[in-house]
Write a structure and sequence with these properties.
The radius of gyration is 57 Å and the shape is rod-shaped. Helix 1 packs antiparallel against helix 2, helix 2 runs parallel beside helix 5 and helix 4 packs across helix 5. The chain is built from six helices and seven strands; from the N terminus they run H-H-H-H-H-E-E-E-E-E-H-E-E. It folds into three domains: about 35 residues; about 80 residues; about 90 residues, no CATH class. About 60% of the residues lie in helices and about 20% in strands. The strands form two sheets. Strands 1-2-3-4-5 form a five-stranded antiparallel beta sheet, covered by helices on one side.
């Protein structure tokens, strides 16, 4: 467009010079031929019109040029922003991929730990199921609900619930093992139901006696449960130990025989 404006301006200058140039003689020497005033005025008007058109086109071109320059700068900024976004997206993609790998690795580690924990819980449940038969009635009554859940535990039960029930039963068993417990019970002697008091020394030994002292004996745990042996001669010492435990008598040493086992000699214990 700039070249067109320059050509138009040059044409106007040449044309204007021709109009205003001195009159020339005709080639045949017949004299000078002068353009009529009307023709001159018309040419001037045309020249002014052309000049105005050139000025307008020049002005429009300048405006368009400035617009193109602004658009070009805008495009440059947009390209720079797109490059920055592309770079940032690439960085975020790399970070996301690294995080994904870390999460997958962590997930695998958690899966392995869960498998190990599940195996340990299953082993503990199996060991506890084998020990449940030796739990005396007062201990079983204390954790009866948890024992039932342990006995029926399976893969459908969440691990945290299975572990909680194991912990409840194990804690109760430890507390019982470390204490002396007296609990009432009903025993059958000669076809008759007799109420007795049972003195448990943890989970290792127990003695029983009825209130009149007619029936007495001792017991110890086995794989089939508690095994009891009657021995009426133990009635007095057992009742004395129970009274001491209930604080119905002053503390003193009481000799109580353990149930007959090859590795269980008679011992003396102080019951308070």
């Amino acid at each position: 467009m700039s070249r067109r404006v320059k050509l138009s301006a040059s044409f106007g200058i040449v044309w204007f010079a021709w109009v205003l140039s001195p009159a020339q003689e005709n080639p045949d020497g017949s004299g000078v031929q002068v353009p009529p005033p009307a023709v001159v005025q018309e040419k001037l008007r045309e020249w002014v019109k052309v000049k105005k058109l050139i000025s307008e086109e020049t002005s429009k071109w300048e405006e368009e040029r400035q617009t193109l320059v602004a658009l070009n700068e805008l495009r440059k900024r947009e390209v720079a922003q797109m490059e920055e976004l592309t770079q940032a997206s690439g960085n975020r993609l790399q970070e996301a991929e690294a995080q994904r790998r870390d999460l997958l690795s962590e997930e695998e580690a958690l899966r392995q730990r869960r498998a190990t924990l599940e195996e340990q819980i299953e082993n503990a449940e199996e060991a506890l199921r084998r020990a449940i038969p030796v739990f005396p009635p007062p201990l079983r009554e204390k954790v009866e609900a948890s024992i039932a859940r342990v006995e029926m535990a399976g893969a459908e039960m969440p691990l945290q619930d299975r572990f909680r029930e194991l912990l409840i039963v194990a804690r109760a068993a430890v507390e019982f093992q470390q204490s002396i417990t007296v609990s009432p019970d009903l025993r059958e002697f000669q076809g008759e139901q007799v109420e007795v008091d049972v003195l448990y020394l943890g989970l290792s030994q127990a003695w029983f006696v009825d209130r009149r002292g007619d029936y007495a004996g001792s017991g110890s745990p086995s794989e089939q449960g508690w095994q009891w042996t009657e021995d009426r001669r133990m009635a007095g010492p057992i009742r004395k130990a129970i009274n001491i435990h209930r604080k119905h008598a002053a503390p003193e040493l009481v000799s109580l025989p353990f149930a007959k086992r090859a590795d269980a000699p008679t011992t003396k214990t102080s019951v308070e």
